[in-house]
Design a protein that fits this description.
The chain is of the alpha/beta class and 133 residues long. It has a single domain (2-131), classed as 3-Layer(aba) Sandwich (Rossmann fold). The protein has helices at residues 12-24, 37-44, 55-62, 79-82, 86-94, 119-131; strands at 2-7, 29-34, 50-53, 67-71, 98-102. The chain has a five-stranded parallel beta sheet, sandwiched between helices. Strand 1, helix 1 and strand 2 form a beta-alpha-beta unit. The protein starts with a strand and ends with a helix. 37% of the residues are buried. The model has no long low-confidence stretch (mean pLDDT 92).
């Protein structure tokens, strides 16, 4: 299974996901793409199989991924203070990959029905959803 992780800002969530997915799904091939170099650098600490930075990397990686994981903002153009370009959002949205979107209520994007789950609880749910694929 080819898993694409997309993260922005400081990449902390992406790093945690890399570590958790590698532990739970050792045969998965993980590509971590940061929207900026700080996010990529953080995710590299989790030791993904591949890593890259920027818009073209997101677009290219979306073409071959089986699963795309990231904050819900990766499908909203200009979100995360402009880090998600319209082309990135389209690439994620049009990809044939299964998308597991993490409902993070930040940067002006509020998701109805989201309670007070911690990031750890949200990431646990990502692993649960991955296990059903």
């Amino acid at each position: 299974m080819k898993i694409l992780l997309i993260d922005a800002k400081g990449g902390k969530m992406g790093r945690q996901l890399v570590e958790r997915i590698k532990a739970s799904f050792p045969k998965a091939i993980i590509t971590a793409v940061g929207t900026n170099s700080s996010a990529t650098a953080a995710m590299l600490k989790g030791e993904p199989d591949f890593a890259a930075t920027g818009e073209n990397s997101v677009i290219t990686a979306c073409r071959t991924a089986d699963v795309i994981i990231g904050p819900i903002a990766i499908v909203i153009a200009d979100s995360l203070i402009g880090e998600i370009t319209p082309s990135m959002a389209v690439a994620v949205g049009q990809s044939d990959a299964v998308k597991i979107l993490i409902p993070v209520n930040k940067c002006g994007n509020l998701v109805a029905g989201i309670g007070t789950e911690t990031m750890s609880e949200l990431l646990d749910d990502v692993l649960l959803k991955l296990s059903t694929l």
